[in-house]
Amino acid sequence: MATFRHICDSVAVITLSNPPVNALSSALIQALQKALGEAIRDSAVEAIVICGDKGKFCAGADIREFNKPSQKRGPHLLLLTDLIESNKKPVVAAIEGVALGGGLELALGCHYRVAHVQARVGLPEVLLGILPAASGTQRLPRLIGIAAALTLITTGKYVPAREALKLGIVDKVVGENTVDEAIRLAKKVIGQPLGSRQLSTLPVQCPPNVEALLAEAMVKVKKQFRGAQSPQACIEAVRAAVHLPYTEGIKKEQELYQFLNATHEPRAQQYAFFAEREVAKWTLPSGASWKTVSPQPIHTAAVIGLGTMGRGIVTSLAKAKIPVVALEQDKRQLDIGSKAVMSLLDREILKMEQLGHTEATNSLGPVRFTLDYDELKDVDIVIEAVFENMALKKDIFRRLSVVCKPEAFLCTNTSGLNIDEIASVTNRPQMVIGTHFFSPAHIMKLLEVVRGCYTSSTTISTAMRLAKMLGKIGVLVGNCPSFVGNRLMRLYVEQAVFLVEEGSKPEEIDLALEDFGLAMGPFRMMDLAGLDIGWKARTEIGLTGPKLPIGTPARQRGSKRYSPLPDILCEQGRFGQKSGQGWYKYEKSGGRNAMPDPWLYNFLSEYRCIHNLKTRNITQEEVIERCLYILINQGFKVLEEGIASDPKDIDVIYNNGYGWPKHTGGPMYYASLVGLPVVLTKLEKYYEDNPDILDLKPSNFLKKLVASGTPPLKEWRSHLGSQSSKL
Ligand SMILES: CC/C=C\C=C\CC(=O)SCCNC(=O)CCNC(=O)[C@H](O)C(C)(C)COP(=O)(O)OP(=O)(O)OC[C@H]1O[C@@H](n2cnc3c(N)ncnc32)[C@H](O)[C@@H]1OP(=O)(O)O
């Protein structure tokens, strides 16, 4: 666990060992305490080096132990950091891989820190709904100042070694032999005074405007992490470092930690953390799984279409060092697309250089631009990313069947088209799979991997592996219109529009949902994405426009309520940000500043008059419940139909693709927090009030769970019974 061995010249090396990331389990902390005690007592030892086994210093507390009663967690790391710091023998941390959370706090207790150039350090506790409670909020500001400490602690950002050196977090960065260098340093400083290296004894260097700095940070986190308490608690803890002596600051740190721990946030965030890792462990009803099916190697790739999505996908592949052939249909599109890709790649190089990479240009895979399909003949995988038109996609896949080598996998980047229909035109339907990227594709972490009825398990395994290679979270889902993410999103957005018909203003709805924590309310989101996209899709399927049968009631399609509001806005040329007006008005076409539009108020009054709609006061509570519960209800339907195999999958999709606040765990976790009986009762009520909104009708699976006594979320899956899984 934590082994201690003598090295020549009286330096003891203590190695943390708890695979895979040397997390500080209670057993490891106990072993570390024992090893430290031995080294301190041993008169032959004059200095100590702490390092991590297998090239990883320490990823912090063992998150799996967070739910254990605290008395079983063993001696607190905080005491150990004090023990190390007050020790007369110098202690050096040799940081390889990562020093995160408690791992960095341990290193801050040491007198010196040597880091490998590829190491990263950080205090990501805020992302787990807690704060660094083993003195991190008190020692780090003393080491690097208030401003830098606030940024690190409130964002949870991982800092690469060179940046850590500039900030003063580490004393030295080395290209190799980190432990040897730490030993050298330890020997050198034997006998030297350690006062200035004991961070807890140092004063906090405060700029004169420190209160303004703290206030500014508070405004920022309240906006960025709406509804979350841990970022605010982090700032309060740093404020304590400013105003209180170290020991008092520590008391405040503990108090705030206890406060956070009593909220639901840590459990929700930790659930989200593990869910992101669990989704990689896919299993099919056939028994094939991530463990049993090997992916095929991907050495080269091609992307078809260099629109916004295609450019992001090419950049993403290049960042993963996969050589890419990028194909467009004509010279003009190729020129525009290739310039845009080159500029994205330049930005990536700049970012890497700013992080201290000396050979940033060489760390991207090469990109070749072409008009010639023949250049695709040797690639291992093709990702088609043209616009959402089934006929066009089928044409391309027919062509790929002929051109590509038989072993090549064929992916379609679609946000909802039928994968089976596309696969059926190819000579290898078993090697066709949906890869739904999110925009911007080189930044967004989520990849919905859509399995069609023909898709083989090797194709799934390869696509999931590709997600990992791209640094993305791949979530395997079944094939149905709009898959999981957009299927749920459509109902949420539709509900928001119905609420506007009933009397809400777009900005009121946006505010309610943004206060809940969503990154962007539905109307701002529609304006950003472009209202014309949905309009075009609805026109194509005859929900509006010339294909709509004459005599169709304006606000009804079949037996369902329909709102023509977004269609009318588009007919008026209001497409959102791109046209300078949509649900909001903007300073100019392409402007980003959403301002409430008096024109819209007049228009809505007339609209309500024409359609005989009585307006009423709608509470924030109703906005949140109707918009979110209809989405959650659809989540239960998706589970019932076997389109997603586990509530975790839906939560990961929403947390990483749709700006859902992670501190609530995701929509399905949130439903479990609210309580399924509450969600069910509310849905029943709203459905009774709005019988023409059929999707408010509670799903059978939700009813079944409530009837079975509301089991915890991790057991929902076992209540699905003989679902006809699409996975
Ligand atoms: C003891 C009390 C005293 C002090 C308390 C301090 C508070 C904390 O320290 S909170 C923890 C802070 N640390 C983190 O948040 C780190 C989280 N981990 C990561 O960011 C990454 O996992 C990584 C360390 C950078 C490694 O990334 P990668 O190489 O991409 O691998 P992963 O798939 O993410 O992880 C591999 C494997 O390790 C498990 N794991 C990672 N970190 C922890 C952890 N801190 N505790 C327990 N387990 C951890 C992760 O779940 C994966 O497990 P699998 O079973 O293989 O899925």
Outline the fold blueprint.
Elements: E1 2-7, E2 11-16, H1 26-41, E3 47-52, H2 77-86, E4 91-95, E5 98-100, H3 102-109, E6 112-116, E7 120-122, H4 136-144, H5 146-155, E8 159-160, H6 161-167, E9 172-174, H7 178-189, H8 210-224, H9 230-243, H10 246-261, H11 265-278, E10 301-304, H12 308-319, E11 324-327, H13 331-354, E12 367-370, E13 381-384, H14 390-403, E14 409-412, H15 419-423, E15 432-437, E16 446-451, H16 457-469, E17 473-478, H17 485-502, H18 506-516, H19 522-529, H20 531-540, E18 556-557, E19 560-561, H21 565-571, H22 598-610, H23 620-640, H24 647-657, H25 667-674, H26 676-689, H27 700-707
Parallel strand pairs: 2-3, 3-4, 4-6, 5-7, 6-9, 10-11, 10-13, 11-12, 13-14, 14-15, 16-17
Antiparallel strand pairs: 1-2, 7-8, 15-16, 18-19
The structure holds ligand LTDHYY67.
Ligand LTDHYY67 binds near residues 125 and 134.
CATH homologous superfamily title of the largest domain = 2-enoyl-CoA Hydratase, Chain A, domain 1
Q: Could you name the CATH topology of the largest domain?
A: 2-enoyl-CoA Hydratase, Chain A, domain 1
Cofactors, ions, other ligands:
ligand LTDHYY67
Which CATH architecture of the largest domain?
Alpha-Beta Complex
Q: End-to-end distance, in Å?
A: 40 Å
Largest sheet: 8 strands, mixed
Quaternary state of the chains: single chain
When the domains are counted, the total is 4
